[in-house]
Structure formats: C-alpha cells, structure tokens
Amino acid sequence: MMRMKIIFVLYFTILLPLALAQLKVGFYKTSCPRAESIVKAAVQKRFNTDKSITAALLRMHFHDCFVRGCDASILIDSTNQSRSEKESGPNLTVRGYELIDEAKKALEKVCPSKVSCADIITLATRDSVVLAGGPSYDVPTGRRDGRVSNMNEVNLPGPSLSVSQAFQSFKDKGLTMDDMVTLLGGHTVGVAHCFFFSGRLTNFQGTGKPDPSMDAGLVTTLKGICGNGSNPKAFLDQGTSFSFDNEFYRQIRAKKGVMKIDQELADDRLSSGIVSRFASNANLFRTRFAQAMVKMGNIQVLVGNAGEIRKNCRVINSK
Fold first, then answer.
1. What residues does substrate bind to (predicted)?
2. Strand-pair partners of 234
3. How confident is the model at residue 319 (pLDDT cuts 50, 70, 90)?
4. Domains of the chain, each with CATH number or no CATH
C-alpha cells in the first residue's frame, strides 16, 4: 500500500505539471490577451500588398516543424561559430522572415518575453490561410523556442521523391498518408522555382522528352515561364493561384501537377483515392486541412520550462 501511495504522489508531482504545460487554445489569454490579434494585424498588412505570403508562411511552418519540431529554429541566423537551418539548400528560398520579425517587435512592446516565435509562425500561417479563403481554425499555443539551429540537420522530403519515399518523412513525424496528401494541398497557393521541376519539361530521366505524366499544354506553358528571367518560378495551381481551395487536386487529376511529387499523388494507388475525394469535396478538404495543420503544429513542441521565449526571433537569448 505504501508503495502505491509513493507511485501516486510521484505521478502527480512529475506527470501532472507536464500535462498542464501542453499546448492549449487561448494560452495567452491572461499573459498577453492581444497576442493573436497583433499577429493577425501584421499578417493582414502584408497580405494586402503580397498575397503570395500565404504560400511563403505555409512553407516556412512546414520546414520548421520537419527538422527539430515546431520550435522556430528556422528563424535563427547563422553566427561565426555555426551555420543555421536558413543556409541549407531547401531553405534558401524560404521567405517571410521579416513578417515574423514585425509581429515579434509589436508583441515585445506590449508583452515582453511572453509570446514565442514558434507560436507566431503557427498563428501567422493560420491567419494567412484564412485571408486566402481557406478554413479558419483554432490554434493551440504555448510552444517555446528552441536554442539550436544546424543546417546539417535539415533533411526535408524533396519534390522529386515518390509518394512512398515522401511518406516516410511524414510517417517519422507521426503523420498519416491522409495527413501528407492533405498538407501538400497547401500547394494550391504555392509556387516553385523552375529548377525544382525543369527536368520534367525537356529531358525527363534522360529520355530527351518531357515527362509523359504531364499535360502537354502545361509543358508548353512552363517552358515559356522558365525561359524568362534570372530566377523564374511558376504557380503550382495554374487554375486559382491565389485562392485557397481544392483546385490543386482537380489540376493534378488532369495531369497538371507541376512538381513530380504533386503529380504522383494523383497517380499512385497509395494516395490517388484521397486526391479523388478532395477533388470532389471542397468542404472535406477544408476540414481535413485544418485538422492536419493543428496536428503538424504539435510535432516535437517544446513546452513548460523547455527551450526559451526569444526576445529576437533571429537570435538565441543570452544565458
């Protein structure tokens, strides 16, 4: 009986505080009541002049969560001693950092050292999705910021992978195939630099011909885009490029996937059924996207006394 009492006490002294420290909706209700509205205002201001910020924030959020978890390690600048995640190949085209800086600066004036950079990324991404016509959903907050950012740890699923290869990265983070297909639906407002898919346009796998899985008309369109400018890019959804809807799934079912992984979602038996459901049911996609974003936002989060609340999202606090 005594041993059971000791175990009972240990459970409440060790496990209960951990449980209380988990993410929750309205985490800043007392410590910084205006937190979410301040982030929203910063996003609205940027969206008014740059609707592509939705795609940029979705990418930033994904690239952050898939390395060390959703800890804002992607925001940390390199130093003379270490090269941060920003300098890795997949992150060289990530943008939107200045928007996070702006939101953080505004929050520090009102609630110093209260709101984490990790939560700012998560909230800003949600707000940008809503502005683009996507679903509105509650974001659990309470994340803390990581103190490590190493470019050598960045190993993200690339656009040329097969469905099964890409899924391994998602599975490793506790996500399902349905989650993966849903999250890649964020490409409905996305863009890609031509070097990510140019191999599909002229010399696919050394054949000297375009990828046969790509619509011929799209090949012609993309050749025109990629032949102009110093760093050309194309919309991943050629239909409703700035609207957050299910058109992406309709496009890839019509062989109009710009990146290889996008097209394979529609062609691979592991994912084609999910694509078909989303293509024919916009509300289902909206619902599942909101759920999948919340789930992704919970990957390996730091809570309680772990990590820190950075004063400057680009710099780790001095000890």
1. 157
2. 192
3. confident
4. 23-153 (1.10.520.10), 163-296 (1.10.420.10)
Residue pLDDT, tens place only, 145-177: 999 999 999 999 999 899 999 999 999 999 999
DSSP track, the chain: -HHHHHHHHHIIIIIHHHHHTS-BTTTTTTT-TTHHHHHHHHHHHHHHH-TTHHHHHHHHHHHHHTTTSSSSGGGPPP-SS---GGGSGGGTT---HHHHHHHHHHHHHHSTTTS-HHHHHHHHHHHHHHHTT-------B--BB-S---GGG--PPPTTS-HHHHHHHHHHTT--HHHHHHHGGGGGG-EEEGGGTGGGTS-GGGSSS--TTS-HHHHHHHHHHHTSSSS-EEES-SSSTTS-SSHHHHHHHTT--SSHHHHHHHHSTTTHHHHHHHHH-HHHHHHHHHHHHHHHTTTT-B-TTSSB--SBTTBPPP-
Active site residue 63: yes
What confidence tens digit (pLDDT) does each residue in 255-310 have? 999 999 999 999 999 999 999 999 999 999 999 999 999 999 999 999 999 999 99
Cα angle 67, 97, 25 (rounded to 5 degrees) comes to: 70
Count of all residues that appear for the chain in the document: 319
Distance of CA 181 to the CA centre of its chain: 13
Mark the binding-site residues for substrate, compressed into ranges: 157
- The residue from 59, 61, 63, 250 that is catalytic is 63
> Residue 136 above 50 pLDDT?
yes
Binding residues for heme b: 187
Binding positions: 64, 67, 69, 71, 73, 85, 157, 187-188, 237, 240, 245
- How far does Cα 275 stand from its chain's mean position? 19
Among 101, 57, 45, CA closest to 76: 101
